[in-house]
Amino acid sequence: MSLLTSLSYSPPPSALGPSSSSSFNHHKPISDLHYSSSSYSSVRTDGRSRRRLSTRFRRSHHSAVARSTTITAAVKPEPLKIMISGAPASGKGTQCELIKEKYGLVHISAGDLLRAEVASGTENGKRAKENMEKGMLVPDEIVVMMVKERLLQPDAQENGWLLDGYPRSLSQAKALEDLHIRPDLFILLDVSEDALIERVVGRRLDPVTEKIYHLKYSPPENEEIASRLTQRFDDTEEKVKLRLQTHHRNVEAVLSVYKDLIFKVDGNAPKENVFTEIDGALSSVLEQKSGTDSASVVTGMASLETSLDS
Ligand code: AP5
C-alpha cells in the first residue's frame, strides 16, 4: 500500500470526558499512529490525579477511537504495472501513447531503448542494429539489463509502468520473474497479418513529438508535420516478414508465463475502439487494486484496535 495513506478519525465527545472541549481530527501516516499519555493529559483542565486519569482516559479513548474510525482519506493504490505485447505493428506504441496520457504510466519500450542505443553508436548499439536489421531478437545480455534498469528507476516505481515489447522470449520473462517483477495485466493485441504489413509500410514517425503516424490511418495534421516525418530502418515489407517469424517463434513461450494475466484485444479495430477496450480493463484492475488496499487498511485498523484494547 502507498505510504500516502492517512486516516481521519473523530472520537465521540464521551470519549474525551466531561471537561474536554477538544476535537480530534488528525491526519497521520499509519506508521505514526500511536498515542502518548502526554497528548491526552493536555485535554484535562482540573489538574487532579493527572497521571491516573490520563491512563484510564487513554484506554477508553483508544478503543473508542479505534471503533469509531472512519477512513476518509483517499487510499492511493499501488501504481499499475502493465505489459503490452503483439506482433510487429500491431499497435503497441499507439496504444501506449493513449494509455500513458490517461493513466500517467511510464512508457518503457524495448525497441525505443534499443534505437537510442543504436543512435548513440556504442558497441552494444552496433550489435543491436545488426540483429534488428535481420528482424531477429537482440541478444539478452544487451536487452535484459537495459530494461531491468529502466524499470527500477524511481519514476517507474512511483507512477507505475507500461512495458512495451518486452519480454519477447522465455528467458526474458524469466529474468523478470527472478526479480519478482510481474504485471497486473498482460495486454495482447491480436491483428491479422495483412493489416500488419500495411501498417508497417505506411508508418511514419515525428522526430520532434515522437508521435506515431500512418499515411492512411493516422495522417499528419498539417504540411509542416508531414514534411518532417521519418521512417524506421526496419519498416519494410521484407523486414517485417522476418520480424513476424521471430514473433511467432517466441510468443507462445512468453504467454505461458503470464497465462493468468492475459487480456486479449482485437487490434484490427480503429485505434480509439481498441483503446476503449483496454481502458475498461485497466479501470477494473485499478478498482480491484484500490479495493485490496482499502481492505488491508481496515484489517490493519482491526489489529490496531485489538492491540490497543489489550
Ligand atoms: P519494436 O520497436 O518493439 O518493434 P515491433 O515489436 O516490431 O513493433 P512496432 O514498434 O513495429 O509496432 P507497434 O506494435 O508499436 O505498432 P505501432 O503502434 O507503431 O522492436 C524493433 C526491433 O527491436 C525488433 O524487431 C527486435 O530486433 C528489437 N527488439 C525489441 N524488443 C526486443 C526485446 N525485448 N528483445 C530483443 N530484441 C528486441 O503501429 C504501427 C502502425 O500502425 C502505425 O503507423 C500506426 O499509426 C498504425 N496503427 C496503430 N494502431 C492502428 C489501428 N488500430 N488501426 C489502424 N492503424 C493503426
UniProtKB/TrEMBL annotation:
Keyword field: ATP-binding, Chloroplast, Kinase, Nucleotide-binding, Plastid, Transferase
**Main subcellular location of this protein, as a coarse class:** plastid
User: Which stretches does UniProt call biased (Basic residues)?
Assistant: 49-64
Q: What is this protein called?
A: adenylate kinase
- EC numbers listed for it are 2.7.4.3
Q: Which family does it belong to?
A: Belongs to the adenylate kinase family.
Top-level EC class, please?
Answer: transferase
An example of a GO molecular function for this protein is:
ATP binding
Reactions mediated catalytically: AMP + ATP = 2 ADP
Q: Where is the composition biased (Low complexity)?
A: 35-44
For this protein, the parts annotated as crossing the membrane are: none
| UniProt xrefs under HAMAP family | Adenylate_kinase_Adk
PANTHER family, per the entry: NUCLEOTIDE KINASE
- A cellular component term, taken from the record's GO annotations: chloroplast
Renumbered to this chain, region (Disordered) spans 1-64
> Where does the protein end up?
Plastid, Chloroplast
